[in-house]
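question for whoever is on the cluster today: can someone run the full assembly for these? two chains, 919 residues total. i dont have access anymore since they changed the login thing
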Amino acid sequence: MSERGCRPGRADRRGMPLLADNYTASRPPAWQGQLGGCGIASCISLKGERIPGDRVARMLTIMKERENGLGAGYACYGLFPDRKDQYCLQFFFDDEEGKHGAEEFLSERLDVTHDEKVFTSESSTVPNPHPIVWRYFANVPGKREWRGDKGLSEDDYMVELVQHINEKVEKAFCVSSGKDMAVFKGNGYSHEIAEFYDVERYSGTMWLSHSRFPTNSPAWWAGAHPMSLLDWGVCHNGEITSYGVNRKLVEMNGYRCTVLTDTEVVAYMWDLLVRRNGLPIEVAAFAMAPRTFEEIALMPPKERRLAEWVRITYREAFLNGPFSIIVGRSRPETMLIALADRKKLRPLIAGLSPDDSTLYIASEECSMRIVEPDARTWAPEAGNPLVAIVGKGVIRRGTEDPFLGVRS
Amino acid sequence: MSEPMKQGKRFDHRLPERFIPTIDRELCRVCKRCVSECSYQALEFKESRVVAVGGCVACGRCQALCPANCIEIRPVPPQFAPHGNWSEKSRRAILAQASSGGVLLSSCGADDDHPSIFDDLLLDAAQVTNPSIDPLREPVETITYLGRRPGRLEMCDGKVIIREDDTPLVRLDMPLMFGHISLGSISYNAQRSLFMAAKELNIVAGSGEGGLHPDFYQYADRICSEVASGRFGINPQYLKGGAAVEIKIGQGAKPGHGGHLPGEKVTTMISETRMIPRGTDALSPYPHHDIYSIEDLAQLISVLKESTEYRLPVGVKIAAVHNVGAIASGLVRAGADFLTVDGYKGGTGAAPRVIRDHAGLPIEVAISAVDRRLTQEGLRNRVTVCAGGGIRSSADMIKALALGADIAMVSTSAMIAMGCRVCQQCHRGLCSWGIATQREDLCARLDPEISSAHIVRLFRAWNEELKEVLGAMGIDAVESLVGNRDRLRYRGANPKIAEVMGVKHIGEGWG
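^ ran it for u. tokens below:
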């Protein structure tokens, strides 16, 4: 797969050579997706206070065993309090040409109110080439039309634009397109990416982060996590063995898979189930990590009926295989969802600060102990979602009945 | 009529025998059991010993029941001068047809030696990056539903709305169904064995065209009632009492063809079940004469849903033909809750050889075409796809699921479990195993208790093998395999087939 062989002098922690290929916005030729292990870490202020970026960076970088220098990323929510009603489109461009192409495309279709270069460090150890990272704040025009369709909602319109750019506009990739949030990711170790973007300069009410240990495929900046669409951000540790099935469901509903990884499909799945189909978080989580029919048979009649129908209807949404994911969104509220597969084959642990003001989610306990030595930790159950909302606290601990609070 | 015929002159070519039952004289006790077992009268007792007199079809009955185990059925060595182009098979066909002047009939599935595409597919397994699962220690689910699914759940005032009345579903314990084999093409005992096994396995069995015998209503909740072009045996109880209703448009072994049960097979029992006079030919027209287009089919689907009060899934069965993807889409749009696609290697009780061997599509290709087309049109998550025609083993079943079928349909393998040796003589009604016959003495040879137990054991074993493979792939529920072509690789000689099926070639990874 490598075009140029291995880069002399660039090796992972164990001295294994890394491929010289390094792609930013454009998808590497013959890209077939990536697999491997990962570390995930997240923190959310339950009282709505701002958490500086170095806090989540410390959480992530401590889990050294979980990464090999081929990708890491951060997503910050509550990032733009002054512009929180506008979409923030954050881009990777290979070069000025990509930037020009994307801007030309956007200018006709969005009301861009402000754009700026995203800070990136010149003295970074992150291997070259680096993308141009740029962000645009934009409103969706009242009169909008996409390929003859005039009835699209603002969000659906934005989804079409972003997917079109990622599929068709060369040398440009939109890494995040939500409101009041942005994604900072790239090809390097978690500490390198933190330095590259200087995440310390940002603070937000919620952070997601991810580092990974993929097999040695070409590095692609846009393929790193968090994967994002609208304000959904997804960090994922796992390998979805049902990828082919899940991909069919999102494609049937109009999503175009451009990154070709299971995480991308997971992000689209949340958007489909929760935003477009309007399902409660608990129901969407159940669809992705359902209980067995044997367990369903033991549920009380009303829950049983709901469980059966969710499972039958959303069969293609069932994410099989090992995973733990953390999912963020900023609308209608800034919310964190953590979910592990139904056998809990990948780790996921939660912890609350002693004053109940901050919730931490991570792959490993060390991740929260380094920033909150006295955190009260617990393990969310297999296939049981944990939900926390800024300003509201922990809504679900991931140990409750599957449909607690859901009406059917 | 030609001259020789008028004169009554015999002008059949005499063809060399194909098989000869050979008796070990040292072991033979001359009990004559083989003579009475041979329904093809290929053995006779002559002058103190049993001799082969011709006509052996290698059904294996004599060999299996010989108490001295002294019979071996040997294929006759080639009797034709060798020729690379004019195979023995083709010359035999010409001679037979020159003698009879008619359409050559045969049965079972296409017997050409085209390799099965299933054999060119390899399954994936989990290593390191995802853990495999031991089905003996952890749940691996094989429960499957047959019928229409809603596509999505609606929300109203913060409540999840479930409209289960719109989408009747049948639950199966494994992704398998028995195909439609009518009473008439097989015996009462053979059909009873299938129904008993379907009930025991908690799957469904097709009724076949020909109604349901009164004794079989006890299995009706596991029977898919077929509505075919002859409309035989259809009454309110038949439709409403079953698990599902299936309109038969075509059959893989004979796409575009109807059915013909000769009058001599229409016994009192068959006449009562099919609701036609005894001794009359039961002819199923080639098309349904009320369905000449898709909108006509939509009407019949509506009529059947109306008559079953929307309590049963109504499906349509078609033969796999070249444009199967588009046809499948039409069926879903016409209201079918499930589709059954039957590949060209599918079995039959009687079919013209020219159609059986030369028309249709391999099921592997048909499944992927249907699955892809329905996915492209956003319909795949509303409908159940059943597929059969050449599924010989659990491996074939698993590959059929991975290519995109929800449910694998099998018939021949169930009959082999009962004793069938696939000698391709079903159309003659002389089945020595009591399966494809209506002759009372032959029917009595099949004990439904024993045969159904054999069927149950076979498919329980398949289900265990399915779980083993799922577990090895790191998948713990069968629905995550359906249409998951990423977990297949093609190793055959023609990469174009892989491309058409949407399966990667061996050696192509994804990470």
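summary bc i know u wont read the tokens: The CA atoms of residues 339 and 472 of chain B lie 29 Å apart. The first helix of chain B runs from residue 3 to 6.
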